[in-house]
Automatic annotation (TrEMBL):
<dbReference type="InterPro" id="IPR026906">
    <property type="entry name" value="LRR_5"/>
</dbReference>
<feature type="signal peptide">
    <location>
        <begin position="1"/>
        <end position="18"/>
    </location>
</feature>
<dbReference type="Pfam" id="PF13306">
    <property type="entry name" value="LRR_5"/>
</dbReference>
<keyword id="KW-0732">Signal</keyword>
<dbReference type="InterPro" id="IPR050467">
    <property type="entry name" value="LRFN"/>
</dbReference>
<protein>
    <submittedName>
        <fullName>Chaoptin-like Protein</fullName>
    </submittedName>
</protein>
<dbReference type="InterPro" id="IPR032675">
    <property type="entry name" value="LRR_dom_sf"/>
</dbReference>
Length: 344
């Protein structure tokens, strides 16, 4: 039986408070989806709001909701997805999500949140939290602690400046962290020590300002399924991140790399992309090419032409292809007439 389509007539109560201090109520327009295939039902609600059916998806969009207060959501029956989109949210208070069932997703995006305080997402039964496209610059250390259901956290398009190794304490199932388009400058030692130890990690930090990866950044994990750090300012990758560790899919496009450490080729790599690293050395490009041919490695190269005078060829590296063309000897014009200088 598809549990998403079974309607059980239990109360769903949503309390909508405008001012957390004065406990004032406001009206909100919400859209309710009964199941994954249903057409949304538009409702105007105010505190208290009682809806006597299971809900698959509750959507609040384009409203004015500066604060999400304690017990803003009191959900006791089935709800899978909860979204607040473009609704001017600035502050989320502790206890805002008083949710009994296990949510697949809490998504609060395109708002004006600048701080994620501790205890907001603690002890909530939710698998994915998406806080992208806000103004977040501060995430308190305990913000994502004590959440035994949490697996995925997305913090894209914010103003985050650092990765805190102490995030996710007692949240042992988090395996995917995405913080694309932020202001992160370094990946510190033991950066992911509290994340899932039983499955490969997926890490996305493209379009930041990362200049340094600490050699001990990944010490807590043996397998990284995806490390995506495109569009940063890396000039080198430390050898230690590849020792006794498999990074299966490494994406370092649009950095300032010149070479890869030799130990990378012993790390079980299956896919490598490093497009737009225009300063990459030809000797290292040739090494990558040989390894790729010998080990069936999927590679996307920067667009560079390397001269091989010993074999009298140019090796062309261009995205996912390489090929060779003969060196063109210099042209000598033997019949050129040089006019003598005229006397003055």
């Amino acid at each position: 039986m598809n549990s998403l389509k079974v309607l059980i007539f239990l109360p769903l109560l949503v309390l909508v408070n405008c001012d957390c201090g004065q406990n004032q109520t406001v009206k909100l327009n919400v859209t309710v989806f009964q199941d994954i295939d249903s057409v949304g039902e538009n409702l105007t609600v105010q505190s208290p709001f009682e809806y006597k059916k299971d809900i698959f998806h509750l959507l609040i969009v384009n409203e004015t909701l500066p604060e999400v207060c304690e017990n803003f959501f009191l959900v006791q029956n089935e709800l899978s997805i909860l979204q607040i989109v473009n609704s001017s949210v600035q502050t989320i208070h502790e206890g805002a999500f008083n949710v009994t069932p296990t949510l697949a997703l809490i998504r609060i995006v395109q708002n004006q949140i600048n701080t994620i305080p501790k205890n907001v997402f603690n002890n909530i039964k939710v698998k994915e939290i998406d806080l992208s496209q806000n103004l977040i610059s501060t995430i308190e250390t305990e913000a994502f602690d004590n959440n035994t259901y949490l697996e995925i956290v997305k913090l894209n398009n914010n103003q985050i400046k650092e990765i805190n190794p102490n995030w996710f304490l007692n949240s042992p199932k988090v395996y995917k962290l995405s913080a694309v388009y932020n202001d992160i400058k370094a990946i510190p030692a033991e950066a992911f020590k509290n994340m899932d130890q039983t499955r490969p990690l997926k890490l996305r930090f493209s379009a930041n300002r990362i200049t340094e990866i600490n050699p001990d950044a990944f010490n807590s994990h043996h397998t990284i399924q995806l490390l995506r750090i495109n569009g940063n300012k890396l000039t080198t990758l430390p050898e230690n991140i590849f020792i006794n560790r498999t990074i299966q899919n490494l994406q370092v496009n649009t950095n300032q790399l010149q070479c890869f450490p030799d130990v990378m080729f012993e790390s079980g790599l299956t896919k490598l992309t490093f497009i737009d690293n225009i300063s990459f050395e030809c000797s290292c490009l040739k090494k990558v090419r040989k390894y790729a041919e010998d080990n069936k490695l999927e590679v996307w190269y920067p667009s560079i032409i390397c001269e091989d005078r010993t074999r009298e060829v140019n090796i062309v590296f261009n995205y996912n292809k390489t090929y060779e063309i003969p060196l063109i000897p210099p042209t000598v014009d033997v019949d050129v007439y040089v006019k003598p200088d005229q006397p003055t």
